Amino acid sequence: xxxxxxxxxxxxxxxxxxxxxxxxxxxxxxxxxxxxxxxxxxxxxxxxxxxxxxxxxxxxxxxxxxxxxxxxxxxxxxxxxxxxxxxxxxxxxxxxxxxxxxxxxxxxxxxxxxxxxxxxxxxxxxxxxxxxxxxxxxxxxxxxxxxxxxxxxxxxxxxxxxxxxxxxxxxxxxxxxxxxxxxxxxxxxxxxxxxxxxxxxxxxxxxxxxxxxxxxxxxxxxxxxxxxxxxxxxxxxxxxxxxxxxxxxxxxxxxxxxxxxxxxxxxxxxxxxxxxxxxxxxxxxxxxxxxxxxxxxxxxxxxxxxxxxxxxxxxxxxxxxxxxxxxxxxxxxxxxxxxxxxxxxxxxxxxxxxxxxxxxxxxxxxxxxxxxxxxxxxxxxxxxxxxxxxxxxxxxxxxxxxxxxxxxxxxxxxxxxxxxxxxxxxxxxxxxxxxxxxxxxxxxxxxxxxxxxxxxxxxxxxxxxxxxxxxxxxxxxxxxxxxxxxxxxxxxxxxxxxxxxxxxxxxxxxxxxxxxxxxxxxxxxxxxxxxxxxxxxxxxxxxxx
Length: 545
Known about the structure:
This protein is mostly helical. The protein folds into two domains: 15-44 and 322-545, MetI-like fold (Orthogonal Bundle); 70-229 and 279-320, Orthogonal Bundle (MetI-like fold). It has helices at 16-40, 47-52, 55-86, 92-98, 107-118, 123-132, 148-172, 176-184, 189-218, 221-225, 231-241, 245-272, 293-321, 324-327, 332-364, 367-375, 378-381, 384-410, 422-446, 451-458, 463-474, 476-492, 495-500, 506-515, 519-543; strands spanning 87-88, 288-289. A two-stranded parallel sheet has the order 1-2. The longest helix has 33 residues, at 332-364.
């Protein structure tokens, strides 16, 4: 009598939700994989030439910009957050929301406005010459505007709200009992900040500074206008001017390495130090009233970054946009239509993909989609120029083969049908900002009690029906926020649009006009971008009350 063979456990069939989640992850990660492939398989290896010539300068400038913006935004964002949470002073109620408004102004628009305001022909130097009777620039000294320090100032003014928002939330979540005990022990305001408030808020501040540094690496319009050569400008010069794909990909890999190191250091620094507040009897912080010169100083500290990051650039741009003829200039309406259409399509696809991937990963419970889910956030950390490089070259190769096939079949050469099209830009935006949609969907779906979808499934609803009839109505507000934030970020995106699209959008129109010193021609498009950004800021302020 022979033993019966042991039955093997059946493997679960692959469901469409898992396949869809993995497919989305592959689409998001494909440009980054392509960049690494090009870097390690160059047709012409110019890496030794880059190391001995321009790469050290690119890295030094990028490093100084990251360090400078990180320090400035960390100090400004933390100081403003501490003041509006811990103290009462004139204007505090509206300043705590107004400090978010610089997020509506792209850094490159702030750069154009600063140069126009402080340059030799600008109102400041003109007033100085008229007041003191100076004849020309040789009669007085004025700091160089188009420089590295000015780039740090402009980028910091545009990005400090990232640190401010996270630091403000961290200070508000702290217990007021700790500050009362410190005050009873005779600890002064500076001691309470340094010994109690700052250690508890450190993880949030570190996360905000890391986001600022990543956005600094991504910046192209500001550093290009100020003639500061960074790793991002190096990609443009090596690829578009030098025609060397491998060299551009190698610089892109340096950027990716910097970003990965930055994210790793930020996460490890937060993992080493953990603080928790007891949920029982948690008393909120009671702000203290400031009077006299202290109240005026607190108000001035908050007004300074707001003025530099929002009031100054919007005022300068608006002064150039008052000319009605510029609003009827040829191409502005078409650029606005393209921008709104492309960015709306990208936002819808990114949010749909984010919800599908998060829901599919949670539903399937498989290991591979769970591993792929956090990796898809790398697209947001990668600069737009890096993603454009990883998208355009493989797509151009496919487009050429498709054109050859059409020519062989029909005898008509269709040219490049996909390269430079709106669909390519939509794909780049989806990859670039997928992390916003995915993170919002993950947080929103995580707040839904498991009993609700279980009840729907027990009543005969399919997985898709449960998503449409239970989950989507409950996370509708979060989906709307993700749609608007993704849309606004796509409107402001410059490097990827410059490299991928053959037509004008609002951002590329602003860049092209300002590069020719035609700020009046750039003003209408820049003002529209700022107006769209304000919508997102208002929504963000409403969500963080």
